[in-house]
Amino acid sequence: MTGANMPDTGGHDLPTQGGVHRFSYAELANRLGISGDAARQLVRRRGWQRVRGNFPGAPAIILVPEDDLTAEQWRGDRPTPPVDRPTPPYESGATPPDTGLLARGLAALEDAIAVLREQLEAERRQVQVANGRADKAEAAVAGERSRSDVLR
Known about the structure:
Structural class: alpha+beta
Mean pLDDT: 77
Helix content: 40-55%
Distance between the termini: 107 Å
């Protein structure tokens, strides 16, 4: 952004009066070794002043106090994972999942499913018995109705 109040940074971080640095989001992300989205979130969280461009598409300029910039420099020391593929957590130093625990959990679930299947089969047998009794009762009622019709 150009003008009397906002000199053009020319794509470079320039300290201004009072120890304030001016960055675009891309420059800030590059300086701190983070993504552009992470830079936007950081600007919002820290409450750093943003100055919008004079025309559509012009990059916003972020005013970052020297002390805050120094405090955020630790980010540049981190290794950046490759962009082409996500890094699984266990490759980045985290402990791999406990496969023994997963296997025990799976076995417990399979046992519970077996018990539920047995209970379901017992319920089905009871339903079949009840349906057989109902069919006999309906047949008996139908037979009694036909007998009463004949007697009339």
